[in-house]
Amino acid sequence: MASKQKQTYSVCFCCRRRFKLGISEAPSQIRELYHNYSDESAIMTASHLQRFLIEVQGDENITENEAQSIIDGHKHLSIFHRRGLNLESFFKFLFSDNNAPLLASRGVHQVMSLPLSHYYIHTGHNSYLTGNQLSSDCSDAPIIVALQRGVRVIELDIWPNGSKDDIEVLHGRTLTTPVALIKCLRSIKEYAFVASEYPVVITLEDHLTPDLQAKVAQMVTQTFGDILFCPSSESLKEFPSPDSLKRRIIISTKPPKEYLEAKEVQEKEELTKGKSSGDEEAWGKEVPSLRGGTISDYKQNNDDDDEDDLNEEEDSEEAEKSRQNGSGEYRRLIAIHAGKPKGGLVEGLKVDPDKVRRLSLSESQLEKAAETYGKEIVRFTQRNILRVYPKGTRITSSNYNPLIGWMHGAQMVAFNMQGYGRSLWLMQGMFKANGGCGFVKKPDFLLKTGPNNEVFDPKASLPLKTTLKVTVYMGEGWYYDFDHTHFDQFSPPDFYARVGIAGVPFDTIMKKTKTVEDSWLPSWNEVFEFPLSVPELALLRIEVHEYDMSEKDDFGGQTCLPVWELRTGIRAVPLHSRKGDKYNNVKLLMRFEFI
């Protein structure tokens, strides 16, 4: 409830406008529901609340005693607290943190005893970079932040230092300033399991001589000790499970790669071409659609070109020779073998029944491969691990649409975690699932093989499975989390919401509410329906913006939620900042139904 009754805005030095501050009140649909589930005295008793929680909220196992506990928790809001909830306290309950769209107490609830290849894994790209790919500082700070957010795969590019007697982490032959490898390793050990007890994979992009590889082996062994997972044989026939690797560190690497001077020059030229139109917007570019164009209710162009990656991770003869002569101690640490076999993509996607491995493809390579080899990619990822990484032209550390990887079974869809914007919001939304542990089991259809050895075809037309009905009632909290002139110098904000689905191409869409003018408490009361063919890969996107007639609309919050874990019923949906940090007070009141 607003503590002030009026708010004043300056129009000019001699003119002021005053606006009434509204009070957060239940929308008409909520009032109607309340009266349907209360007694003649307009009080919602424990038995009435229990019935509401079962019939509207879908909480089928709720008891009357649990309903009474909810009432007891809202006694201070109701003069009828001994009997039940009045309308005000019922409305406050609906808007409370205990009525979230995802059930936090559910925690890790998926089967975690299957091989690593059966899970999507929260994966970072160039995890040590603080900013762009060419001139930002390298540090252990973004690694720490990533681990605190539940990222489970940390990438380190390791190079000899200037005197060739130690190892540094940096984006090779760019203007990035290095950080010592040992500092990164120690930070990984300290923060690896603060957000999740499931394993952390360190992927090493190795540019070292054999003597420095031996030094890395010594550093890694001494730093991690018993928590380092070292396989008993050089190659694994099947990956171990997340359960069996709890609180363990895993090393994954492939032969060193060589950067060509011409590629560096081209990357640096890209950096000097000037402002990238979408990435500097208040909330970032719209996510590229897998159907072409963008996922948007606006007409926008996808500004990213489709050039080949400037940073192809291919083996050279020199690199192969270095690997063969490499340190034996170093090779024994590698639990997940990676690389690109000679013979191109067809050869690379062949499944070896006797050993498993990791293959890396750039987003561009995956898009091209998916046009012809979609089913082969799915088959490969049933046993092996596919890592997808951003193309080299993403020098501003932007990201791509992760669904291209996920719908083909790619486990490690590597993102620039400092590349804030809509693509990263999808990544954060996916890994809210399964208790935020950093591992989400892939849908069964990507893991199954049919009677004739057939696998899921990502290009196949799929039947409608369900429809998600979303009601956007209202929002509140901006008045407390933002300065009163943050959105508009001369009046309260004009908010609108965007709601939609990121998923397989058929399911992907964005819709928009009307704009509510001059209100810190926008009430939209709009209903949207989203037909879903693959709800197992659908993410519900929610954004709020403030309409600005003369400039770009202002950002007012966002969240992204895994559809398959949504709690049905009326829920209080907390919104997050552009970086993914939850606001203290900003929430939307929404209803979710599957019809």
How would you sum up this structure, described in words?
The protein is 23% helix and 23% strand. It has helices at 28-36, 46-55, 64-72, 87-94, 141-148, 181-191, 210-224, 261-271, 317-324, 328-333, 344-348, 363-383, 403-406, 422-430, 478-481; strands spanning 6-12, 15-20, 119-124, 153-160, 167-169, 179-180, 200-206, 249-253, 334-337, 358-362, 385-389, 412-415, 439-441, 466-476, 495-502, 509-512, 523-532, 539-546, 554-562, 569-576, 582-594. The strands form five sheets. It has a six-stranded mixed beta sheet with strand order 6-5-4-7-8-9. Strands 10-11-12-3-13 form a five-stranded mixed beta sheet. The longest helix has 21 residues, at 363-383. 44% of the residues are buried. Mean pLDDT is 85; it is low at 255-283 and 294-319.
Q: Say how many strands there are.
A: 21
Read across the widest sheet, the strand sequence of neighbours is 6-5-4-7-8-9
Radius of gyration, rounded? Answer: 26 Å
Classify the helix fraction into a percent range.
Answer: 10-25%
Shape: globular
Mean of all residue-level pLDDT scores: 85
**Uncertain runs with pLDDT below 50, 5 residues or more?**
255-283, 294-319
How far apart are the termini? 34 Å
Percent strand = 15-25%
Number of helices: 15
* Multimeric state: single chain
Structural class: alpha/beta
Largest sheet: 6 strands, mixed
Main location: membrane
Subcellular location: Cell membrane
Keywords: Cell membrane, Hydrolase, Lipid degradation, Lipid metabolism, Membrane, Transducer
EC number: 3.1.4.11
